[in-house]
Amino acid sequence: MRKTITIAIANQKGGVGKTTTAVNLASALANVGYEVALVDCDPQAHASTFVYDREKLDATLTDVICTRWNHAQPGRPMRLPFEHIRSAVYTTSFARLDIIPSNIGMAAFDRDTAPAIDRLEEALRDVAEHYDFLILDCPPNLGLLFTAALKAAEHVIVPVAAQYLPLEGVGDLLQSLDEMIARRKLNILGALMTLFDARTSLARNAVEAVRQDATLGPRLFETMITVNTKLAEAPAYHVPIHAYQEQSAGSIRAIQQFDELALEVLNRLQLPARKKDEKRSIRMAK
Ligand SMILES: Nc1ncnc2c1ncn2[C@@H]1O[C@H](COP(=O)(O)OP(=O)(O)OP(=O)(O)O)[C@@H](O)[C@H]1O
Ligand SMILES: [Mg+2]
User: Fold this and answer.
1) 47 Cα to the center of ligand 2, angstroms
2) In a 3-state reduction of DSSP, which class is residue 260?
3) Which atom of ligand 1 is nearest to 159's Cα?
4) Ligand 1 proximal residues by C-beta, below 6 Å
5) Which atom of ligand 1 is found nearest the CA of 21?
6) Contact 84/126 with Cβ under 8 angstroms?
7) 66 CA distance to ligand 2 middle (Å)
8) What is the mean pLDDT of each run of 10 residues along the chain (286 residues)?
């Protein structure tokens, strides 16, 4: 039986690069031979659109974990059965990278009843054997979906934007994580500086602030993701940066940074830098 590693990318602050990290870390790991599923745990469905054309989607994670009702008969709504997670798995154009997408309907999860918390973890158990990594992109809040994602994960990576007040709200996040760590095995695998611009003292001060943090400082990845327009452009083509056709200094730098991050992640997990003798390739499945 293969050991599947589940990593949640979490920070309740919006726009800090969670989705960009989830998508491109996932493709970097796939690129060195690991089988990866990107699991979109955010109703905004950005990770889904980053790697897949949403028009082509049928079932999503919403149908797997959210209670849904058929209102065809007025006054007598019928609860619809949950879909099996297998029906919500899609291959992307990138080799060894699958997506389990969400949609806006998943916002209903946060209004669901408490037992819903376990559904994601249970559903993922049914597909885990097919993957080396499950990478969970979390929503920008500490709601039920966030809790469900963290419950399903054994590791968490916290992206922190190298901007003004980088640790704003991180205290609440760490408190939530601490509660989960106290109850079961959850490991903060690392903190990642994102949107870093070495030319500004603001960015350098932000890194310093994270370095001083008792929890995140010692876990800070050496790799930093710099501000890079290519990372913002690639999603428009529904591809991770590794498959972005436009070769430029910017895209090559972004690929290098995510490859270095993947290497650090694999090192911390004591896994080989490359799975088997898989050749490094930007191989398209179709
Ligand atoms: N290194 C970068 N350089 C330039 N733009 C970036 C970079 N990282 C992310 N972006 C852009 O910044 C925006 C926010 O990034 P992203 O969606 O990854 O953040 P998020 O934390 O997932 O946001 P949310 O909290 O809304 O889910 C996106 O438009 C993304 O393309
Ligand atoms: Mg996001």
Assistant:
1) 7
2) helix
3) 21
4) 14-20, 42, 44, 46, 140, 194-195, 225, 227-228, 231-232, 235
5) 18
6) yes
7) 20
8) 92 96 98 97 96 89 91 81 94 95 94 87 97 98 94 96 88 88 87 96 95 95 97 92 88 96 98 75 40
Q: Which of 19, 24, 137 to mutate to test ligand 1, by most ligand atoms within 8 A of the CB atom?
A: 19
For residue 270, the tally of other CB atoms under 10 A from its CB is 6
Domains with residue ranges and CATH for the chain: 5-268 (3.40.50.300)
> What secondary structure letter does DSSP report for 78?
E
- pTM value? 0.94
Diameter over CA atoms, the chain = 62
Please work out, in degrees rounded to the nearest 5, the angle formed at the alpha carbon of residue 18 by the alpha carbons of 135 and 186: 50
End-to-end CA distance of the chain: 29
By three-state DSSP, how is residue 156 classified?
Answer: strand
